[in-house]
Design goal:
By secondary structure, this protein is mostly beta strands. It has 2 helices and 31 strands. The protein has a single domain, classed as Methylamine Dehydrogenase, Chain H (7 Propeller), CATH 2.130.10.10. The radius of gyration is 20 Å and the shape is globular. The N terminus is likely disordered. Pfam families: LVIVD (PF08309).
């Protein structure tokens, strides 16, 4: 997740990506020093996360995850890895049966030729998984497909690398189309995966380049598709919405059409950054159409093996009119940054690196800087972690009344949001 050599994307990913020398070559970085930011006390919040179960992964760096109900009626979580450290392997997908969430069972693992599994997605039917990969030894990166007829033991179902050899950062499955971030071109590639063994690119889109701007400056960090609209986190090109079948701009998956593009900057250590890094579209129970958009800014010298200061915010956009998104609120955990997030049941679950797993109430009106909607925090750390007692919460996803999270150093966390203890 978020590790192209020329950018400084997701906080944790950037830390895995490069040496200090590489970091100095990256554009628009902060020159601020790294400081330790104290952790929040979970007892001071109106709700709490109960740790239901654990899937420890202390010897590899855990990254992306996807939770789903398999075709066999059981619940699973697939977690990826990143190889950005000595003796780390970034080519493994772990398969967890979480039907008994108190005791996750590691049923299998899948290894691919990759330096990192940068994203994982499962289709709505629970029959096909897609793994984004980069850093392969043969440069045949692209996407690997898995047949989930037996979700406890997925089997290869094809791969596509021919025009995605530079690597893929993010993937999303919608019907028989796969939306992928092409690291080489900075484009969104659309693949027909109706037959994953013969997948093919059927569409592409990228923002136009300005004067004297090279195509290598484009970076698509994240993509999500809902109701015929593609929501894109496009780094310094901002928050983008495309019509890929909704009809608002007569777009189709094969011919995406621009609906809106919102560039913004966030101030950190007296500098301003774009760094649009993650996106999640959501409609609340009372019908408000929102898009949560996150950015992350990593200062030089930050090290995932120790507490670190990270910049970045979560921006809340009202997308009732997708042609004109309007930022209505924002949220930040000072010094922690924003990684990945997921909304369900009018709750937003946010991975905030050293700030742990957090929950926000989005059922209430959201305006200005968000403080009161913050419900709970959980440090995803323990003494058995690869780095003891240090959280680097990477990703979060809600499924079947539970909240799943990955931590870079400790693996899979299975939690449940509950009222605060009396």
């Amino acid at each position: 997740m978020r590790i192209p050599a020329r950018f400084l994307p997701c906080a944790a990913a950037a830390l895995l990506a490069a040496s200090a020398a590489e970091a100095q070559r990256r554009p628009r970085e902060s020159t601020g020093s790294v400081t330790v930011v104290e952790s929040a006390d979970p007892a001071n919040y109106p709700a709490r996360f109960e740790v239901v179960g654990r899937g420890p992964v202390p010897r590899m760096r855990s990254t992306e995850l996807w939770a789903f109900r398999g075709v066999d009626g059981r619940d699973y979580v697939y977690t990826g890895t990143n190889g950005g450290c000595a003796q780390c392997v970034g080519s493994t997908l772990f398969i967890w049966d979480v039907s008994n969430p108190a005791a996750p069972v590691l049923t299998d693992s899948v290894m691919v030729d990759a330096g990192a599994i940068s994203d994982v997605a499962v289709n709505q039917a629970g029959t096909l998984a897609a793994l984004a990969r980069r850093g392969g030894t043969t440069r045949r990166n692209g996407v690997v497909f898995l047949d989930l007829a037996d979700p406890a033991h997925p089997r290869p179902a094809g791969h596509f690398w021919e025009s995605l050899g530079g690597g893929v950062e993010s993937v999303w499955l919608d019907g028989d189309r796969l939306y992928a971030s092409d690291l080489a071109t900075g484009e969104m590639a659309v693949l027909d995966v109706s037959n994953p063994r013969d997948a093919r690119v059927v569409g592409r889109w990228a923002p136009p380049l300005g004067p004297n701007i090279d195509a290598s400056s484009r970076f698509l960090a994240d993509v999500q598709v809902r109701d015929g609209l593609a929501y894109l986190a496009y780094w310094n090109d901002g928050f983008v919405i495309l019509d890929v079948g909704n009809g608002v701009r007569s777009g189709t998956p094969n011919r995406p059409r621009l609906v809106s593009q919102t560039r913004y900057t966030t101030q950190y250590n007296r500098q301003r950054y774009g760094n649009t890094n993650a996106v999640f579209a959501y409609t609340t129970a009372d019908g408000r159409r929102l898009a949560f958009v996150g950015d992350a800014i990593v200062p030089p010298g930050a090290d995932p093996r120790r507490p670190m200061e990270i910049g970045g915010r979560l921006h809340v956009f009202d997308v009732t009119r997708v042609e004109a998104p309007r930022e209505v609120a924002w949220y930040e955990v000072p010094g922690r940054g924003i990684s990945r997030f997921w909304a369900e049941g009018d709750r937003l679950y946010v991975a905030t690196n050293n700030g742990g797993l957090r929950a926000l109430d989005v059922s209430v009106p959201l305006s200005g800087r968000l403080r009161d909607p913050e419900l709970a925090v959980l440090p995803t750390r323990d003494a058995a972690s690869a780095v003891p007692e240090l959280s680097v919460t990477w990703a979060a996803m809600a499924h079947n009344g539970l909240v799943f999270a990955t931590d870079l150093h400790s693996g899979l966390w299975v939690t449940r949001l509950l009222p605060a203890a009396p």
